[in-house]
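Reproducibility note. Readers wishing to regenerate the assembly model reported in the main text can use the exact inputs given here. Chain order matters: entities are listed in the order in which they were concatenated for prediction.
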Amino acid sequence: MTSIPRSDKLFFYALLPFAGIVLSIFILLLKILVENSLPIFIREGLGFITSNIWRPSETNSRIEYYGILSPIVGTFYTSLIALILALPASIALTVFVNEYVPHRFKILIVNLIEVMAGLPTVLYGLWGAFIFAPLLKDYVMVPLNNYFWFIPIFSCKPTTPSTMFTASVILAIMVTPFITSVIREAYEAIPLSYREAALGIGTTKYEYVKIMLTMIKPAILAAVLLGFGRVAGETIAVSMTIGNSFSLSMCLFEPGYTISSLIANQFGNAGFYHYMTYALYGAGFILLIIGLTLNSIGLYILVRWRKSLEET
Amino acid sequence: MKYIVDIKCLSVYIKGKKILECIDLKIPRNSIFTIMGPSGSGKSTLLRVINRLIDLIPYAKVEGKVYVFGMNIYNVDPYILRKQIGMVFQTPNPFPHLSIYDNVALGAKLNGVARNKDELDKIVEWALRKAMLWDEVKDRLREPPSKLSGGQRQRLCLARALAIKPKLLLLDEPTANIDPVNTRKIEETLTSLKNEMTIVMVTHSPHQAARISDYIAFLYMGKLIEWGPSSQILIRPRSKLTEKFLRGEI
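Running the prediction on these inputs yields the following structure tokens for the assembly.
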């Protein structure tokens, strides 16, 4: 039996601490999050996630109360609207890039999409808050309210450019490159033999694309879940465009809050209050649960789909 | 029209490399026409020009003229052409997300071969019977193709190709990856079909060519060495290269 060379053993031991550090940081993060959020869960109980009261007090900590229903609802609401807008755009972009753009331009566009996916989100926030939001208010929100006021989500008059609608659109713009990346990779992973099979039965381009998209349906679902995880956790750009208000409204033209924008906005003041820091940790813990769940399910579906493709 | 495919000085380049060199070939109607040759001789490329699947290959350049059913293939929409041409590939490739039934029905449905459910059912049964698969799958038509063996999957692909009621059937080494029993079944199907359609098959096996062909073309390093009735090519080949191939020396 041959023994492992000494250099290989040394190499293994040299790598070990780095792997260990990453894992330890995650465990430490989880520990701190749980430890610091426990007091608020014990104090407010289920009310922390079911009530919409944010009542800090500098003088009397006994009357402090923290319930984050509005940010939780806001997180899901803006994420959902963002995904509804981003998904068709991502699918259309994938099909366009793969089926219509000549090969040499395709590489250029794909790289551009990757760059967009990696841009600092504060840039989207800046552009969104100063340029895009006022335009969106005047040319989209106001007309939507004027003509479709009877639909609950468009029923209120937009009074400010910073609304849940603005944040959702900015999130959609930000997440489209990411979702496109995941869907495009899956689309390109379809083996040539299936493409030939689909075209070989005399499909039109539309029918062919439909067959290809049906084949990658699980990957599209995974892209949506992973995208959901991303937008739910997005902080800066949302804080800059959502209006940061504890409102619980169906109407998209109201300002709102998301969990991450709540944390970003309130952490500067938290030290002045007895329980607010715990409340923010609690909000962070809930955000972590949402993100972990969505990402885990998304990754699981994606891995299972890739495996099924290899098996056939 | 005596010839269903008429190829005039066809050359194909992929990324600048010459794959086929000025091929002239006529494929007679209602015959089994076999293109044989060693690996890398350009057989599959030639087949993919006929139904324009070559368009899928990036940087492929096609020169010369190809007429199928009397039409210049570059003057018609490829999908109109492919609606009339079935194809079976080297590796069985039924759609994994569709059931056995839907794999066969898809082409018939999209091409308007069947107008209602009854017609579709009949076509699916006809195609599966022709591919000698009906008895093996009739009770599990809703199962995915992953439940079938490799040979059964290939016969399912043959049924899928037949369900569009093609005038021309292309087969790219359809038995290369399957066992002798399935190979025999596919060959029997092809022989029984030649009154209904023209069949063009690529193979690297002279024995298979001998078993089922009416005509044989021999391709070597991108060049058409010779073609003619199978008896002539197999018994009295004009070229030394063909002779060598038949003896298994190249």
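We highlight two features of this model. The CA atoms of residues 58 and 273 of chain A lie 5 Å apart. Residues 73-311 of chain A form a domain with the MetI-like fold fold (CATH 1.10.3720.10).
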